[in-house]
Amino acid sequence: MPIISLHIGEGGFGKVFKCQVNDSEEVVAVKILKNMNIQDIKDELDMLDVIGQLNADQVHVVKLYEKFQHCGFTCLVFEMLDIDLFQYCQNKGSLDVNAIRPIAMQLLETLQALKSLGITHGDFKYDNIMLVNREDLPYRVKLIDFGLAFYTNKAKFGRVRQIIGFRSPEVSLGLPYTEAIDMWALGCLLAFLYLGYSLFPESCEHLLFRSMDTYTSGSTWRLLSKFEYSVINRKKVFIDLLKKMLHLNGAERISPTEALQHPFITMSHLSHDQGSREGVARESLTDPPTSWPDPAPTSPLGKSLVSPYACNIYRPLTFLAPVVNHDF
């Protein structure tokens, strides 16, 4: 039996401890489940057995080494990972699109693998995405916690799933849903990584719907800086992918396979960037700034939300709310 050395997490499911395996230096994470509904425990164990058919490293899910009973409690022994994405962003701040890309690619491969098994994770959020080793393997991530996972064809419509800030419209409305709810949650996660705060409110479902309406309708205009224009190709493909992930209609939401072919993931758009930069450089010689914005606001994680060098170049923003638009 592993020797407990540190309590590292707790939730409605139970507790997680960092443990050392007897007579070795190997460190593992042991999840001790609460004595909850026996069927719930059985369902989670069955789901872990099915997911265990996958190559955990190739599809970026946590490895389950073994399970055992101790003093009437079910214990699950997992590989030891690093910190979750929420903790990472608290420490490091929001991420650039170039750092977000490998994370997005890995998690899309995870969703693709789960879909092939007919499984929906159902609890896709930043604290269920762990970094493997932030020092030696930067941006290598794995999905954890399959306690709320279910077979997609057995989804119970009307059952509340997902935390509010990551909850898809179809779940909130009690409509039929598919694995597309995980894609919605991934879109929310990627937006969080870039902005440094959640795209949608996490405390009130009414505010959630108001935000969805604001973010997906109407048109907002503002001044676009020279710097922003020079990097627009990198950001606009990221925004385009987010729009497809956050389509209000789950049936029309982009699939994992389609998303893996999106230019943001394949980087096919980068071949056009050089020409865009040259065009901006030429324009900047003949079109000096004519107006200046208010001092740049800052996100909770320290990221500037607007360039202080705005000039008279305009563009429409039809997706993100004005406070979010400042960063694009």
TrEMBL record:
Binding residues annotated for ATP, in chain numbering: 31
Pfam families tied to this protein: Pkinase
Segments passing through the bilayer: none
Segments forming domain Protein kinase: 2-265
Region (Disordered): 276-299
Gene Ontology molecular function: any one: ATP binding
InterPro entries in the cross-refs: Kinase-like_dom_sf, Prot_kinase_dom, Protein_kinase_ATP_BS, Ser/Thr_kinase_AS, Ser_Thr_dual-spec_kinase
Entry's family note: Belongs to the protein kinase superfamily.
Chain intervals with Basic and acidic residues compositional bias: 276-285
Name recorded for this polypeptide: Protein kinase domain-containing protein
